[in-house]
Each structure stands twice: as structure tokens, then as C-alpha cells.
Amino acid sequence: MIRRYPVGVQDFEKIRKDGYLYVDKTALIYRLVNEGSYYFINRPRRFGKSLFISTLAAYFEGKRELFDGLAIADLEKDWPSHPVLRFDFSTGKYENAEILREDIDFKLSEYERQYNIEKVSEASNVRMQKLLKEIYRQTGRQIVILIDEYDSAMLYNAANPEMQATVREMMRNLFAPIKEADPMLRFVFFTGITKFSQMSVFSELNNLTNISMLPQYDALLGITQEEIETQMRPDIEMLAQRRGETPEETLRTLKAMYDGYHFSYEMTDIYNPFSLLKCLMTGEVESFWFASATPTFLIRILRELGGELPDIEGVIRNTTAFDTPIDGKIKDPIPVIFQSGYLTIKAAYKMPPYGQYRYMLGFPNQEVRTGFADSLINYVNNDNKESLGAITNAYWDFYDDDDLTAFIEALRTFFASFPYDINNQNEKHYQAVLYTLLVSFGADVRAEHHTNRGRIDIILRMPKSIYVIELKYDHPAREARDQILSRGYADALKDDPRPVRLVGICFSSKERNITEWKIVNSKS
């Protein structure tokens, strides 16, 4: 059996006609279009937004034959055809205002030619207003407007406030006529990666319903556990056969690597569709989504974080925190990291008196956890490939031979390669970098592990031993070791048969590096 997977294919008609796998979302589409008319949803990049827009376009254009065998074929009876205007900003590299201006002009000109409408002005709002009126007059049908990744130009210029202000004004002008054109419109749908609270397009379009965190639509994009176990069962069986595993073993591997996204308080498990389909196509379990690109705005966020990965996992935010501007200095990078797909909801708490939710956030899966850590390490290490390669080799030697001393010596060389201005000169910074480095290797590591007598800085589980690591800044390493002993940190690991090694490490503000360490065996 040969299966075709739509990796990079975002056209619904092509997928259906050429026999690509399509995970049926059409029951949700039917519900969406019959419950309302104006929507916005944000999802991470490569999460199926463009395919969803294409599917909506085919539905509203009345291409019934493309939906044969899908859920909506039994739900929709009328299949009316509407004129559809699509504005796709997902592929542009908007390095300056002129590129965006030309792109908008091209998109409007295409529809003006299609409907034989004279260009009466250079102003995009005037052209959009005339376009809507003329199309409605010519066809006698309400119009559908679909906008894919409206925020692309904003994100591309995350570090350029002046350009962002220009982009906001241009996008506001383009879409300002939509609200007053309501009698002529059947449906309006915006997608984006982020939700900008101060983006003028949303102040103009205050009738948009943001469905990004509504439980009834949390499975609109991405692939659910139910879908992978039913619609995709043959694909899982084929992949398992290629890997020499049972389907259940393969499902566990895929779940750990690509599952774990939650977009509402109902915590529906969502798989990353790009990585999952790429895995099925290649037969390899790798970090496809993170390896596909590192967005420029993520680099800006990494700069804001300064290397402190442990502070990201387990953070708690209210619902209102996710409605955040990205223009200017990012005061709180967590909402943008969440909306971009690097964090997800791990737990939801209903708060009195009005039932609002608070969310605990964390990395969705192993792919994102290691990929984010790798990006962060590359930033704090100033992309020094030689030193990063050396410490990576040292870690795998440590993994094989259990020689911590050799690994610490390699760490000293690694820290010595850091730019002077990247070190924050405190214990927390060094703990964060060490933890992040281990995460980027895929190590079984935990930071700030709570016990009944305190918090362990780092627990590192290796194949042959477990390491309980306490860090000190400008204090002797023996103090760190003695703290582990006096507080009985190793007691939390007594059920593990591996020997536990207690490690005290001293960082010096003068040397800006590790200056000494002590290792004691707790049990054998």
C-alpha cells in the first residue's frame, strides 16, 4: 500500500484530486460556518492554517465533488456558491514597506482584473471598498473573505518598531472597509500566529470572534489522538512495520515526540501535523518542525530571555495575558512563546468568582523541548559551532563512560567561549545554561526539583548513574555537596537501582567559570 502525505501541499483541491491523505475536519467547518460569520484563530506556523483556508474556499465556492466521502457531505444540503477573496501573507518576506505595498497592490489587482473593475485609487481601503461593492453588484451573492497569516509582516519585523507601525497602518487601511460591508459579506476568517491586542485591524474589526482558545474548536487545526487512532490507523501500522515495532509502540513514540499541544481548558491532545506527516512520509522520527526554520521573532524572544530556560516551564498566566502586543519591547515573552507553539497548556485552573481560567504552561513534547533549548544555547553561545560541537561530543562520551569529571572539564572550556556580555554573573544564570544545554542534548534532566527539605538545582539521570547537582556562586563546592547531604536530597531517588552521585559545583564571578567541584557517592 502506497500513501501520499501532503507535506508542503496546502491546496485542498490538489489533495483531494491527487489522493493525498486528508484528515477530515469538515464537520467542524460545517459547525463554524453555521454558528457565525466573523472569526479569528491563531496557531503556530506549519499547523495547517493555509490548508484550512483552502478548504474553506473550496466549500464556499460550492465545489461539492471535492467533499465526497467526508463528514460535511452528509451535513450540507444546499452547497451555495459565493465569490471568495483570499489574501495570503504567509509566504512573504516583508523586509521593507515597499514589498508589502507591492504585495497588497498585486492581490487587489488580481481581483480587479477578474471582475473587470477599474482601479480608481492607490489607497488600498478605497480599492477594497469598491471591490466589495462591485463584486456584490455583479454576482448578487454575499462575499467570503479569507486572510491567511495577517501578522506575517509584523513578525518579520519584530525588531523594527518603525516598520511595525507602518505595517499596522497598511493592514488597517486594507481591511478597514470590511466592517461597514457587513450586508455584502457571508463569512470572514483571519488566521495568524499571534494575536496583537493593539493591532489596528482588530480595533477596526471588533466583531471578530477569537476562537483560538475555545474548546469547541481546539481541534480545528492539528491532528487529535482520536484521528490518529482511527483515520490514520493504516499509516501507523505501516510506520510500525518499517520501524520493526508494534503499532502501540510506534504510537507511544509519536506521542512523546509530536503530541502534547493543548489550546483550551478541555486539554484535547493535538499532534503537530507537519512533523507527524513528515515522519510518516520519511519513516524517521526526527525534529522536523523545529528544524524547518527558526523565526526571526523567536531570536528576539531568546534575547529577552537571556538563557533562562527553567523559568519557562511551569509558568502560570491568566487568559488575558495572551492578548498581548508584540510592537516595542516585549515585557512578557511568555504569551508570544505560547502562541508561537513553543509552549502549550499543561493544566487549567478555574478561578472564582467568575470562572475565569489560569493556565500552567510547558513544552508540548520532546521535539519542541530539545529544539527550543538548542536555539537558546546557540544564542547564548553566540553560534560558536566549534565549542558547541566539542561539548556535544563530551556529553556523549559522558553518556557512554559515566565520567563526570571529563564532562565538567569540557564544560569549563564551553563556558570560557561565552561572550563577556552574555553572562549575568549569578548562580541562576549558570544553572539555566547548564540545564538548557542538557535539555538540548535530549538528556533526562530536571531543574528545581522540589523535595520536603528544599529544592534540588538539577537532577540528571544517565544510563549508569543518577547525578544530584547543587550549584554555588562564589562559595566553595563543599558547601554545595554538604547541602545535598544535610538535606537528604538523594532520599527522593532511593527507589532507583542506579547509584546516586552527589555533585557540588562552584562558579566564580572572577573567573566567570567553574573553578571547583566535589563528587560523592550516595549509594552503590
Reconstruct the topology from this structure.
Layout: H1 12-17, H2 26-35, E1 38-42, H3 49-60, E2 84-88, H4 97-114, H5 124-139, E3 143-148, H6 152-156, H7 161-175, H8 177-180, E4 185-192, H9 200-204, E5 209-210, E6 223-224, H10 225-229, H11 233-243, H12 247-258, E7 270-271, H13 273-282, H14 288-292, H15 296-305, E8 316-318, H16 334-339, E9 344-351, E10 356-362, H17 366-380, H18 385-401, H19 404-416, H20 427-440, E11 444-451, E12 454-461, E13 466-473, H21 477-486, E14 500-508, E15 513-521
Parallel strand pairs: 1-4, 1-5, 2-3, 3-4, 13-14
Antiparallel strand pairs: 6-7, 8-10, 9-10, 11-12, 12-13, 14-15
Helix pairs in contact: 4-5, 4-7, 5-7, 11-12, 17-20, 18-19
How does this model look, in words?
The chain has 524 residues and is an alpha/beta fold. It has 21 helices and 15 strands. It has helices spanning 12-17, 26-35, 49-60, 97-114, 124-139, 152-156, 161-175, 177-180, 200-204, 225-229, 233-243, 247-258, 273-282, 288-292, 296-305, 334-339, 366-380, 385-401, 404-416, 427-440, 477-486, and strands at residues 38-42, 84-88, 143-148, 185-192, 209-210, 223-224, 270-271, 316-318, 344-351, 356-362, 444-451, 454-461, 466-473, 500-508, 513-521. The strands form four sheets. The protein has a five-stranded parallel β-sheet with strand order 2-3-4-1-5. A five-stranded mixed β-sheet has the order 11-12-13-14-15, sandwiched between helices. Helix 4 runs parallel beside helix 5, helix 4 (97-114) runs parallel beside helix 7 and helix 11 (233-243) packs across helix 12 (247-258). The protein is elongated and about 85 Å long. The two termini are 52 Å apart.
